[in-house]
Sequence to fold (149 residues):
Amino acid sequence: MWEIREVYSIEVLRDWVAAMIEDLNDFCNVRDKMKSTQKDEAAHIISCEYGHLNIAEVALFFLKVKSGTFGEFYGILDTVRLMSIMKKFMAERRQMLASYYDKKEKEDREMERLKMESEAIPPETVQQWIKEGKFSETLGLFLGERFRV
Fold:
């Protein structure tokens, strides 16, 4: 969201987040809805504390809240409850990112292993060089003249 703030302004960003909160407020069938000042404060907190999220992630947060992923509101929607849910969302996000990067790192290591394996000299070739007396000559090519046997 920081890109939105830089390109447009913090006010535009807060207004967008406030519109998302207003939509949630209208969507929820709760007895006590958030007051205008509460919505503005929640928009400010989300804009400042979670500015590193992109717009799609914030939209996903509100979608998950609406779908009940983080539980029910039990008659009240307020700023503290919304921020508590945001913390749960961030924990879920961290876990998913950690899982993604772990998987990517594992795949990268496997790709590197396969690359090294494909570039390696097969043991049969090395054995043939040894039999033919070419091993020390070939080793010298790889390691330099001072390593010739």
